[in-house]
Structures are given as structure tokens and as C-alpha cells.
Amino acid sequence: MRKPFVAGNWKMNTDNHSSVNLAQSIASGSSEIAEKSVSMAVFPPFVYLPSVIKALNVSNIAAGAQDFYFEQNGAFTGEISVSMLKDIGCTFVLCGHSERRHVIGETDELINKKVAAAISGGLLPVLCVGELLDERKASQTNEVVTRQVKNGLAGLSAEKISAVTIAYEPVWAIGTGLTATPQQAQEAHELVRKLLAKMYDARLAEEIRILYGGSAKPDNAAELMAQQDVDGLLVGGASLNADDFLAIIRAAV
Ligand code: PGA
After folding, report:
1. What is the tens place of the pLDDT at every residue in 66-92?
2. Number of structural domains, the chain?
3. Active-site residue 106, yes or no?
4. Distance between CA atoms of residues 92 and 41, nearest Å
5. How far is the CA of 235 from the centre of ligand 1 (A)?
6. Rounded to an integer, what distance in angstroms lies between the CA atom of residue 110 and that of residue 96?
7. What average pLDDT does range 144-164 have in this prediction?
8. N or C: which end of the chain has fewer CB within 10 A?
């Protein structure tokens, strides 16, 4: 049985004060939600990670980074390593979020190196995949998602893969207010699970959590979560409001 997982990606939002306030509100509002019923995480901007981790305190909410570099250390100006993130108490990292793929220009090859580095360094990667609007219109969704999953996990053994969460995030639904229908989400998630079964084995594919992301909100969370292969939600905009994020978590339990 896969435990639901709800994560908030704060993107390039909040400030010193509001990031701590948001973390505290989420931590106190989730105190009655049993850890065994749902995994929870927030992904603040790098610079606020230490204070957010402190504010999350003894709550059941983990912290993660939105990005990092795959090298261990050295002359990589401006970059942050897996060991630095571990050092300050991070648990998760996003890999290949669509904004990094399509705004910053990250390739499948780079994303694969990041997934591998995260696992080797003891962080849990959330590999994000998803098609652009034009790709969906051209009926290329399956092809794109298959390519991104295969390339993102290339060279990784079954043992390593058990640390991975996949997030299916159709790019046309991210930050647009458009949400994939529960059926569209289920179709893509089922595709990913079948692909994982083919790449590894059926038992492992049954264990890996596949999150949906793309305008997830309190009013659509329950019907998305009701889909057989939707194991959680990666929430952007709505995770910046503690009440909305907590409502989404409750809908996922
Ligand atoms: P959104 O973002 O919920 O604002 O659409 C989701 C994401 O990018 O992870």
C-alpha cells in the first residue's frame, strides 16, 4: 500500500519572514495529521531552507530543495551540492521540474545525473515529468513522458529506484489554473507505472509513488487522489497559503 505524499513547491516565492510564518502555520495546522497516514514536505527557496527547517521543528513535515548540482563539491560557482543539503537537514530534492527544463534549459541527461547524485548522497529525489500543451495536442504525451522517465532513471538499479518519487506534471496545467482531469491524470500515471514495471519489475512499480502536479487545489485534490495510480500531489501556487495546503493534505489522507 502506497502512503500518500503531499508536497509544496514554493518556487521563487516568499521572503525571510513569510517563509518562516508559512512553515510554522503548516507545522501547527498539521499536528493532528498522523505521520503514518501521509508524507508531507515543503520545498522553499534555498536561502530560506535553514530557517524553514527550524520552524518546522518537531512536525512531521520534511524539507526539500527545488534544485541542486550533481557534483560533490569544488569550483562550481553558484551551485549547491547534495551534501550541503543533507548537512542542513533536507530530505528530498526536486529533479527536472518543468520550469527547470523549459525556462532554465535542463536536459534529460543533466536531470539523470542529478537523480543519481541525489540517491548516492542520501537524498530522496522527486523526478518531475510532463508534456507541453503542443505535445498533448499532437498526441505525444505518452512518448514524452516515457522518454523523460526512461532518460531520467537511466543506469539506475532497481535497488536505487526505490528511493525515487515520480511527479507527473503536465506543463499546460502548471500555474495556469487548468488541471488535468482525473482521467487524464490516471492515464498518465498508469502509463508511468506500467513503464516502471517493464523497466524494473511489477512489485517495485507498485511501490513507487507517482504524484500529480498542475493547479492542484483544495477543491480538486480529493477527486485526483481518488484515482488508482495517483499517490499524492505536488502543489505549487496553493502551497503558499497554509489553509489551502492543509486542506489539500487532508483531502489526500
Ligand atoms: P501549480 O504548480 O500548482 O502552481 O500549478 C505545480 C508545480 O509546478 O509543481
Report:
1. 999 999 999 999 999 999 999 999 999
2. 1
3. no
4. 8
5. 5
6. 9
7. 97
8. N
